[in-house]
Design goal:
By secondary structure, the protein is mainly alpha-helical. The chain has 23 helices and no strands.
């Protein structure tokens, strides 16, 4: 039986389509093979690609160096980064990125790139130096020390590395190690003023006064206006016994930096050694007027006033101290002693009793008051008021040997 016509149409259509593709198929395959061969023939040579990458890396590197010289660190980092992307196995490019990142204040990136440079085979010690600098900036002193020592193992003539090692040893309080590092840097370049200055000030801290004097004098010849040099030379001169020279140096420093309190304190002490009482009092008064809560400045000033028989001025200083430092034991005791010395006995006792109101549970306050009331005691004539205050001191006495000794001495 012949199938219905509609059932044969798909079969005929499929056969026709198969016949339509049966003839051209071998020709299409041949064409495909020819295209593949052509593609393989046109594929870039690996050597050409590598050369192009190097050319691009060089172009970006040069642009980065130009931007660095122009002060554009961000732009320089971007360009050197592109160069490194083209040539990621170049240790010099990783090192340059480390240096630029550190200069830009990005210590973490500086450390990362420095370590990549080391991994890629950087042998000059510069990458170890950048790594050490980044670690030092992060406060990782032990790791920084190790990195600097590895850098010096690669290049023991690098002034910057010796100086950097000296700084971290100095900051860590390792003064002999710092001195050794600075001395090595100084051997490399004896004309470097900063190195000579650092070594000179370190010699002074180690109390090697002669070596310090020689080094700082050398610095003064080449760079007389170096910040801090005048103070350092004056400090050395003072300890070498040249007090007048030290005073002149301190005074010169204060002309430039009048708010340098530490130098002014040193000037006061130099004037005291020279027994130039008015000069010492003038400088001490400046210190005290600027900081009325500075007990040490007030103590020195009042003592100088007493030395010059200026009792009223001394009394005024201790009154200011009491107002500025209420409840402080030592200033109150000093005030009472000065007031007694200048004949202001009633005021001295009032100040001492005022301290007991400010510190009623502190045995030291009662001891100060008792001593003040007992100031006129003589054998056989002891003050009952003093005894009452001593009793109060014993009542409030702390449970410690030191407190008992203090009361016994009083």
């Amino acid at each position: 039986m012949t199938p219905p016509l509609r059932s044969r149409i798909p079969t005929l259509a499929l056969a026709a389509s198969l016949l339509a593709f049966a003839g051209p198929l071998p020709a299409a395959a041949a064409a495909g093979k020819a295209t593949g061969a052509a593609n393989r023939a046109n594929r870039p040579d690996p050597g050409d690609l590598a050369a192009a990458a190097r050319d691009n890396a060089l172009r970006h590197y040069l642009q980065g160096v130009y931007l660095e010289a122009s002060g554009d660190l961000a732009g320089a980092i971007q360009e050197i980064g592109r160069a490194f992307a083209y040539d990621p196995t170049a240790p010099d490019l990783a090192l340059k990125l480390g240096e630029l990142s550190f200069q830009a204040g990005d210590e973490r990136s500086g450390l990362d790139y420095a370590r990549r440079a080391i991994t890629l085979g950087e042998k000059s010690g510069r990458a170890q130096f950048i790594a050490g600098s980044a670690l030092a900036a992060a406060g990782r002193v032990d790791e920084a020390r190790d990195a600097f020592q590895r850098a010096l193992a690669a290049d023991s003539t690098n002034l910057l590395t010796w100086s950097a090692l000296g700084r971290i040893e100095d900051e860590a309080g390792q003064l002999p190690a710092a001195r050794e590092a600075y001395a090595r840097a100084f051997q490399i370049d004896p004309d470097d003023a900063e190195t000579a200055y650092r070594l000179g000030t370190l010699e002074a801290r180690l109390e090697h006064w002669g070596a310090a004097d020689t080094l700082l004098a050398q610095v003064a010849e080449s760079n007389p206006f170096l910040s801090g040099l005048s103070v350092a030379r004056s400090f050395v001169a003072e300890h070498a016994g040249r007090t007048a020279e030290a005073a002149r140096g301190y005074a010169a420093q204060l002309q430039q930096y009048p708010n340098d309190r530490q130098t002014r304190r040193r000037l006061v002490q130099a004037y005291i050694k020279l027994e130039q009482w008015p000069d010492a009092a003038r400088e001490a008064r400046w210190l005290f007027q600027q900081a009325p809560k500075d007990f040490e400045a007030g103590r020195v000033l009042a003592s100088l006033d007493l030395t010059m028989k200026q009792n009223d001025a001394a009394a005024e200083v201790v009154r200011t101290l009491r107002k500025s430092l209420p409840g402080e034991i030592e200033p109150a005791a000093f005030a009472a002693a000065v007031l007694l010395h200048v004949g202001e006995e009633r005021e001295a006792r009032a100040e001492a009793d005022g301290l007991t109101k400010e510190r009623p549970r502190d045995s030291r306050a009662w001891i100060v008051a008792a001593e003040t009331w007992a100031s006129n005691d003589k054998p056989g004539h002891l003050s009952a008021e003093a005894d009452r205050r001593y009793a109060k001191a014993e009542e409030t006495l702390g449970d410690s040997t030191g407190a008992k000794v203090e009361l016994a001495r009083s």
